[in-house]
C-alpha cells in the first residue's frame, strides 16, 4: 500500500497472546532469598559481545563459563523498591533480568521475535509479613506465540530451570 507521497505505508498487526503469570510465595526472608539467588546465578559480562562476531568459539566458551546453576546468569538487577521512594515508601523489590545468550540463540535462530523475551524478567519482593514473593511470566507461555517447536522446546526447558532456580534459592542452597 502506497501513501499519497509515494512511500509505502507502515503495516502494523496486533494479536492477543495468552500469558501465564507465576507467583511463588517462599517462606524465607527477602534478604536470605536474594543472597541465595545471586550466589546461584552466574553474571553476564558485556565484554564478551565484541568477541561474538570475531571469535564465536571463544565467545561460546566464555559465556559457558559465566553461567551459574541451571545455565542461567544475571544480566541486570533493577532496584524497584528504591525507586518507589520517589513517590511513596521504599520497599524491598528487585527485578532480575536472567538468561543465557546461548539459550537465546537456540530460539532466535528460528524466530528473531523470541529475542523480546530473553533475558527473562523475574521480580522478587518482600511481602508485608517479611516472606518473599517471586513473580515471572512463564517462558513457554510468552514464546508459544511464535508457533515454533524449536522455540517451545527451549522455552519449556526455561520453565523448568526457573522453577528449579527459585526452589533452590528458597531452600538457601
What do these coordinates show?
The protein is α+β, with helices and mostly antiparallel strands and 173 residues long. The chain has a single domain, classed as TT1751-like domain (TATA-Binding Protein). Helix content is 39%, strand content 20%. The chain is built from seven helices and six strands; from the N terminus they run E-H-E-H-H-E-H-E-H-E-E-H-H. It has a six-stranded mixed β-sheet with strand order 1-6-5-4-3-2. A hairpin with a 5-residue loop joins strand 5 and strand 6. Helix 1 packs across helix 7. The longest helix has 22 residues, at 149-170. The radius of gyration is 19 Å and the shape is globular. The termini are far apart.
Element-by-element helix/strand order = EHEHHEHEHEEHH
CATH topology: TATA-Binding Protein
- Strand order in the sheet with the most strands: 1-6-5-4-3-2
| Mean pLDDT metric | 93
In total, how many beta strands? 6
Quaternary form: single chain
Q: Count the DSSP helices.
A: 7
Large-scale geometry: globular
N-to-C span: 58 Å
Instruction: Point out poorly predicted stretches.
Output: none
| Largest sheet geometry | 6 strands, mixed
**Could you give me the name of the CATH homologous superfamily?**
TT1751-like domain
Strand content: 15-25%
Return the domain count.
1
- CATH architecture identity: 2-Layer Sandwich
- Class from secondary-structure proportions: alpha+beta
- Top-tier CATH class: Alpha Beta
Taking all Cα atoms into account, the compactness measure Rg is 19 Å
Percent range of helical residues: 25-40%
